[in-house]
Design a protein that fits this description.
- Helix 1 (5-15) packs across helix 4 and helix 3 packs across helix 4.
- This protein has helices at residues 5-15, 20-24, 27-44, 52-65.
- The protein is built from four helices and no strands.
- 70% of the residues lie in helices and 0% in strands.
- The protein is mainly alpha-helical.
């Protein structure tokens, strides 16, 4: 299944403790974060199939790291 903002919102709200930065981002930024998370994990671990949940977890971390405030 392909990662998407709707599923990411659901997963991050239910499973990530520090989710405020993700929640506060607009949809365009969320999509960019998901793209970078998926690309980074795929490049770093090319021999594995990356589960969507791993992308969502990493996306939440990137949202914190790249928060504009």
């Amino acid at each position: 299944m392909a990662v998407n903002i709707t599923d990411a919102n659901t997963y991050i709200e239910a499973n990530v403790i520090d989710n405020e930065d993700w929640r506060d981002a607009d949809n365009a930024k969320k999509q960019r974060i998901l793209n970078v998370a998926q690309t980074t994990l795929t490049r770093r671990f090319p021999e594995y199939t990356i589960p969507d949940e791993a992308v969502y977890e990493f996306a939440a971390v990137l949202a914190v790291v790249f928060n504009d405030t």
